[in-house]
Structures are given as C-alpha cells and as structure tokens.
Specification:
With 267 residues, the protein is an alpha+beta fold. The protein is 43% helix and 13% strand. Residues 50-68 and 101-106 have low confidence and may be disordered.
Amino acid sequence: MKSRFILGLSLFVAVLLVAGMLYPGMYGDPYEPPTEIQSYYIAHESTTEDIDHERQTSADERDLESVSDSTPLEDFDEEKQRLFEKAYDSQHDEIYTTPDDEEYESYVDVLTQRDGYRISVCTEWTLTCDRYKSAPTYPDDAFFEIHSKANGVLTVVEYEAETYAIVQRHSAGPIFHGLVGLGLRLGLFGPLALAIGATAVSARDAHPRTVLALTGYGIGIGALGLVAPYLYMLTGIDVQVYAVELVVVTWSVITVSLVYLLWIADS
C-alpha cells in the first residue's frame, strides 16, 4: 500500500509539473509589459493649433477644430477621472509645451518626445488584481497615426474651466515578453518531472524516503511558481530575478538524488 501511495503521489506531482510548463501563471509576470499599455499624454488647448492634418486619419475625417464641444471630466466614470487627474499631475510642467515650427510639425510630435503617463495592467490569467484589470480608454474625438508602430486617440476634455486634449498612444509590445517565465518553467519542471517519475518507478520500494524527498521538492517548486506573481504584487519581490539560482539548485537536487540512488544500488 505504501509503495502504491508513493508511486501514485509522485506520478501525480510529475504530471502536474508537466502541465505547469504550459500555464503562463507559473513564474509569470502579473503585469502586462509597459510597451503594450497605452501611454497617456495631456496638452492644453493652446498647444493644439498646429495639428498636421495630413497625418490625421479619422474615420469621418474629424479634427480637433471640428470638435464643437469638449467633454466635462465629471462625465467620465471614476476610473477615467482618476487616471486623467494622475496624468495631469505627473505632466503638469509639460502640458503647456507648444510646438516649435522648426522642429515639430504638430503638438503630437511634442507628445512623442516626452514620457507618457503609464499604468500597470494585470495580465488576463491573474486571479486577483491590485492595479488596472484593463487600460481605460477614452472616446475618440480624433485619431492620429504617429508612425507605423504607434498611433494615438485624442479626446477633448474640460477640466477646471480649461480645455485639454488627452492622447492615448499605443505602441507595439515586445515579442519576447514572457520568455523568462517560460524558460524558467521548462528549466525547472521538465527535468524535475522526469526525475520524480523515474525514481518513483524504479526506487519507491528500496528508497522511499529519497523518492518522497524529491517529490516534496517538486511540490515546493510548483507551489512557489503559483504564488510568485502574487508575491510580486504584495511585496515587490520578483522571483524571476532568481531564475538562474532556482535552476542551478533544482538541477543540483536532481543530480544529488540520482547519484545517491546509483551509489546505493552499486554498494
């Protein structure tokens, strides 16, 4: 009975580890990469007089001058109101920057020369979220194609008796995002699942403690992978930073366990 229990438990853990290699939440980043999130820029209406209309591609060919009414900030939901106010506070010194005729074609170019206000958006697989579940989007009063990999949606907002334009600029994200987590899962779970399964089949009767110890280590590594994203949310500790150390320790545990079993078998 004991032998069957060890075999069943070990193979069950090995299967879970194999499945964990496919789950992005294992050792995953709980937030979307900043470059995939919209950047928010705010400009006062006094800086929006020189828009390059040739670069503007709105479905109904509207431009800022044709927008007759601005939207009062209080008409937006609370999330968008808070986002506007935070972006306004963070960019207050640059909101009144005007285009330089010799350097910029329009105020949109000015926006691309300064850092936008960015937020943290949780990935889809997170079970809980301490930031934004999705990036807030404002209605489009105009649309700008800044260049091939970035575009901007412009919304005219009335705030404290002044008129502002908030531009949501979206850029293409990195194609390599998530590779660290994937590499960590492959480097940990694959070899560990193979070692647990092999030792459970061949050594569960003669050396049950060694098999259980290796299985317990697998449970610990799997549990750490599950809580790693939420540990980062709560404490700021990024387990991915220790990816190399985790792989080295895991491979060392596997090597020591296998060498021990082989040495005992020969002696």
